[in-house]
Each structure stands twice: as C-alpha cells, then as structure tokens.
TrEMBL record:
This is N-acetyltransferase domain-containing protein. Residues 15-165 form the N-acetyltransferase domain. PROSITE patterns: GNAT. InterPro entries: Acyl_CoA_acyltransferase, GNAT_dom, N-acetyltransferase. It comes from the Bacteria. GO terms for molecular function: acyltransferase activity, transferring groups other than amino-acyl groups. It comes from Paraconexibacter sp. AEG42_29.
Amino acid sequence: MALLPPDLVLHGDRLTLRPSVEPDVDALVAVLAEPAVKRWWRENDHDDVRQELHVGLTILLGETVVGWLLVHEEDEPDYPSVAFDIALSERLHGAGYGQEAMRVVLRHCIAAGHHRFTIDPAVDNVRAINSYAAVGFKPVGVLREQERWEDGHWGDGLLMDLLARELIDPDAPPAAEG
C-alpha cells in the first residue's frame, strides 16, 4: 500500500490534505513565493514544484490551497521512517494550522505502520521549531552547513525526530489505564 495513494483525503478540524496534482502548481508556487515562506523555502518555480508533486500533500482551507506538506517515505524494512517538509501561507502562521496539518499526516503515517519521523528546519526558524515541538518533535542535533542559501552562505539545520508514541495529540482518545 502506498503511503500517498491518489485517492487519499485527510481531514483535520479546519484543514483538508490530499495528494498534490498539476492544477495545484500555480497556487503552490504562489504560497512558496510569499515573503515569510520564501525566506525558508527559497525560490521555487513551476518545474521545481512539479518535480515534487508525487511526494506532496496539498493543504486546503475550504477549497483554497494554503500550503504544501512533503512526505518522504523510507520503506526499507530495517530503517523505516518518514521525513517531512511543510510550507504554509503566511496568513495562517501562528494560528496552529501547521500543527494541525502535521498531526493529521502523522496519524495517517502511524496508521500505515510507521513509527519514526523527522523534520529539519533551519536553526534560526524559531517559529517552526516551536510548532514542531508542540506536536512532539524533539531536537536531535545540528546539521552543520546543511543547505546553501540564496546569498551563497551555508546554513545549519536542526534535525528533529518524533516517535509515534511521543505524538502530542489533543484529539487522540485517552490511553487505557492498566
């Protein structure tokens, strides 16, 4: 079973996530070009987005494209994991939408049998780091000079991981007492 089958639709309280498709490209490029998003995602053109559609979930608020969540699955039986990247329209920053999208996709991945997840924001992207921590991600270490920024300097990333049992999910049923 593919982690992102073409007919997948995931619902949160306010958001819907579904596999990214060609008609989403213009809206996704527009989200990635917003100043508060572009700062972390750099320049992405239509071809860049098209190359990642097969691992992308488009985040919708109603019928409006408001973000993109990339899901990179490692399905090697001895090293299974899922790595994420997320971009959310700047108009939704600070209102818990990113956390909601992450919880929705994490629940799906856990139900599909995955137990370990990673994300690697820039070390100075404090808003993202705090948002991922609120979901349960924990810092693992600094990925030194992980990516080249548009101005040519190398930036560090913070590797964060989460085990399925560490998911902070206020919507989950309470654990059975034993």
